[in-house]
Amino acid sequence: MPYRQQYNQWLHAPALSAQEREELMAIADDPKEQEDRFFSMLEFGTAGLRGIMGVGLRRMNLHVIRHATQAFAQVILAEGPQAAAQGVAICYDCRLHSQEFARGAAEVMAANGIPVRLFAAMRPTPELSFAVREYGCIAGLNVTASHNPPEYNGYKVYWSDGAQLPPRHAAAIAGEMAKLDIFNDVKILPYDTALAEGKITLLGQETDDKFLAHVLDQINDRQAVEQVADTFTMVYTPFHGTGYQQIPYVLGQLGIRHLHCVPEQMVIDGAFPTVSSPNPENPESFALAQQLAKKVDAQFILGSDPDADRVAIQVRDRDGQYVQISGNQTGVLLLDYLIGAKQRAGTLPEKPVALKSLVTTNMARAVAEANGVACYDTFTGFKFMAEKKNQLEAAGQGQVIFSYEESIGYMIGDYVRDKDAVTASLLLTEMTAWYAAQGMTLLDALQALYRKYGYYGEQTLNLVMPGLEGMAQMKAIMACLRQTPPTTIGGTPVVSQRDYQTGTERQVATGQETQMALTGSNVLSYPLADGTTILVRPSGTEPKIKVYLLATGADRAACQEKLDRYAAWAYDLKKMAADQ
Predict the structure, then answer these.
(1) Residues forming a β-bridge with 531
(2) DSSP state, residue 284
(3) Quick one: pLDDT at residue 166?
């Protein structure tokens, strides 16, 4: 349906509130804004939905949430009565409208005869994954936009293993959405009625206690923490989000005595008033945490994103400044620490395995394999790591002790199948305390790892392309790279051209093509003659193309020289597409 027709349909829809109708009337003379809001639906993918909040087909609002949930309900019902009877778990974060959207989704599920376990208040994303597994639900959904700016919200969808949806189920939901009228084909049972009739059950402290018991079981070395407990001081911030209760609790249970939480950011607020963006990957987000850290003389800062599935850390250097450790580096440190801690505790399994995404540092593989731990790559997304973990463990091929991505996401233990900042915060703090007991900071530890395993350097470049024009530009870049694959980058020969969409690898020197084990994702990879690997992929949740530079060299300076040289090629990608 043309965007003008969609606009008019929405404008006159009885389901709209007066406030929503007023928002649409305000763009009556703005065809470009109408097109942006109505030219298509938000794409439903394996990451669910994510977009700017507002009225429109291509915005996050209650009507879009209900529409997606009706489609999701039909996919569940197609699994059969027994599957539907297992019910769904629903969670939400601190964002504006998140509770409203979660209740709207619950109303639709209940109207379709699918029992709902709805968290009574906001909770971290990993607890939703845990609840799906703990209560034997057929599926789950979480209303969150993770670390996106405050104008965004999102809708993450999970299947019965507690991981985000596999591609076939995501495609099935998208297919159902295309068939359903967004207003006329959606079933709704009012929230209070569904609650009174027992079709919605509220989850609370009893689920928290079960989840947190599993988290605390991950502790490896209480003695090391106790050894430095009187002198070890740290700062934590939840960035106004869902980690504000559980992360301080588990750190207290670990034995941390001097924990200081950033008071302004312990206030729940979906507008995130104290940061430009609530993304812990951005060092500038830690300004208030650094102020507090200097005041209390803290050695260590930890921050979780609003839905508490990702966590970043900063460490005080020898000059008293706080330095951010990247997700790549944090994962390498934690992997190496866990291997050693489990060896010392006698809990390392017989066939230990580590998982990482394709775009995560190759240093993780070096650390794992040097210690007798198998290491496997997966596509970006913890659903792929969960799938690989389930596959390996079911076949008796190994037990996964750690999974991570460079974007500060970590999965540990068997009780969740997604990123988990609650457990990661516990273990990152344990690790930092253990090194403190050895007289070392994490910066010291990282340098020791480089000396032991070799020097690696990584950089992720975000080529932001918003709006309708941006979508076309992103497609053009990927198409251009496929039509004319590079044979040199930054003056260095490309060894092979890997296209993970088709699963093919072509050797540049010989033209020989082979099939790779991983296939079916829109990722291009270029291993270079100097040991660098460059990967290009569109983001699944934001309007940008991400370019990953993974370098290795004789020392830090050699790695940085490569990163600088190849970054120039990456920034030219926009121009290359425009010239086609």
Answers:
(1) none
(2) G
(3) 83
Name the DSSP letter for residue 42. P
Gap between the Cα atoms of 147 and 91, Å rounded: 16
SS3 for 435?
helix
Task: Kindly report the length of the chain.
Answer: 580
CA distance 433 to 427: 10
For residue 548, which of 557, 540, 537, 558 has the smallest C-alpha distance? 537
DSSP β-ladder status, 492-493 and 488-489: antiparallel
Query: Which CB contacts under 8 angstroms, 24+ apart, belong to 470-479?
Result: 470/543, 471/543, 473/574, 473/577, 473/578, 474/538, 474/543, 474/544, 474/545, 476/577, 476/578, 476/580, 477/536, 477/545, 477/573, 477/574, 477/576, 477/577, 478/522, 478/524, 478/536, 478/538, 478/545
SS3 letters for 291-314?
Answer: HHHHHHCCCEEEEECCCCCEEEEE
User: What pLDDT, on the 0 to 100 scale, is given for residue 516?
Assistant: 96
Low-confidence residues of the chain, pLDDT below 50? Answer: none
Query: Tens digit of pLDDT for each residue in 315-353?
Result: 999 999 999 999 999 999 999 999 999 999 999 999 999
Pairing of strands 139-143, 152-159: antiparallel
Give the neighbor-by-neighbor strand order of the sheet with 300-304.
Answer: 258-261, 233-237, 300-304, 311-316, 322-325
Is the dihedral angle over the CA atoms 272, 276, 280, 284 positive or is it negative?
Answer: negative
Count other C-beta atoms under 10 Å from residue 419's C-beta: 30
- In angstroms and rounded to an integer, the radius of gyration of the C-alpha atoms of the chain is 24
Q: pLDDT tens digits, residue range 148-166?
A: 999 999 999 999 999 999 8
Q: What is the per-residue pLDDT across 13-61, written as a single tens digit (0 to 9) for each?
A: 999 999 999 999 999 999 999 999 999 999 898 789 999 999 999 999 9
Instruction: Determine the distance from the C-alpha atom of residue 333 to the mean position of all C-alpha atoms in its chain, rounded to a whole number.
Output: 20
Q: How far apart are CA 403 and CA 533, in angstroms?
A: 21
**What is the distance between the alpha carbons of residues 561 and 165, in angstroms, rounded to a whole number?**
40
Q: Which two tokens stand for residue 245?
A: 């209760």
Confidence (pLDDT) at 578: 60
* Percent of the chain topping pLDDT 70: 99
Query: Which of 98, 146, 285, 326 does the annotation list as catalytic?
Result: 146
525 is catalytic: no
Please, are residues 213 and 250 in contact by the beta-carbon 8 Å criterion? no
Q: 16-22: which pairs have CB atoms within 8 A and are 24 or more residues apart?
A: 16/55, 16/63, 20/55, 20/61
